[in-house]
Amino acid sequence: MDMHPAPTDLLPAHRDATEWALRQQLADCYHLVDFFGWTETIFNHISARLPGTEHYLVNPFGLNYDEVTPENLIKVDVNGRKVEDSPFDGNPAGFALHGAIHAARADIHCVIHTHTTAVSAIALKRAGFGHDDFYGAQLTGRVAYHDFEGITLFADEKPRMLASLGADKHILVLRNHGVAVGEMDIPRTFFLLWTVQRAAEIQGAAGSIPGDNVALPRTISQRCADLTQQLIHGNDFAEKFFAAMVRQMRARQRRLG
């Protein structure tokens, strides 16, 4: 069974072109997270809002990320209720986080939640992300923090998570847990996740080496973050990055047979 459909897959009769394109891109995003080794077995989530609706697509609970296909993604409302028949259900632990963000932030159309080793280690540290390395500097002014309240199952935590995220942050560090990142589309969200992951890896590696780090002035790290945002939002930078990663993944799959 081909778990990695190509973008040229035929449009099913029961899908409109916009939704099918989003489903294909979201399936690619799941496969990329698996390809880079950022999965947590069958747990965690990537969601994408359907344009002009309060519905979003998310993975069926119980499948590995490389088993996600455009067709088996489930469609739910912001409360996690399925709005389309599917033999699959979602994981309730993801609905509070993803539903809250999709309902409250019109500028965020994709949310990715992970807890890789590097990211979770940073989430455990009181200081959180530093901004002195190349990738950490790109996160300056974009990171919010939310105190751990246990597994995110309960609706009463939603307003507190949203208050922690605020109206302008795109990275929510879930303390003692992991991270959620969100952007205006799937390619930009994936690029942001990649940047967060690289920042966590470098910060962890630097912390293991004796000696002081070279600190960056806030003006320099903020300039780095601002320039990155100009690149991301001013052209097709993120789309090119996402497409290149998909090509790399598929080429590796072909070589492995």
From TrEMBL:
Q: Which GO terms describe its cellular component?
A: cytoskeleton
Lineage, uppermost ranks: Bacteria, Pseudomonadati, Pseudomonadota, Betaproteobacteria, Burkholderiales
Taking every annotated instance into account, which residue ranges of this chain make up the domain Class II aldolase/adducin N-terminal?
24-204
Output the InterPro entries linked to this UniProt entry. Aldolase-II_Adducin_sf, Aldolase_II/adducin_N, Aldolase_II/adducin_N_sf
Q: Which GO terms describe its molecular function?
A: actin filament binding
Question: What PANTHER family does the database record attribute to this sequence?
Answer: ADDUCIN (PTHR10672), PROTEIN HU-LI TAI SHAO (PTHR10672:SF3)
Q: Which family does it belong to?
A: Belongs to the aldolase class II family.
Q: Which Pfam families match?
A: Aldolase_II
- Which protein, by its recorded name, is this? Class II aldolase/adducin N-terminal domain-containing protein
Q: Output the SMART domains linked to this UniProt entry.
A: Aldolase_II
This chain's source organism reads: Sphaerotilus natans subsp. natans DSM 6575
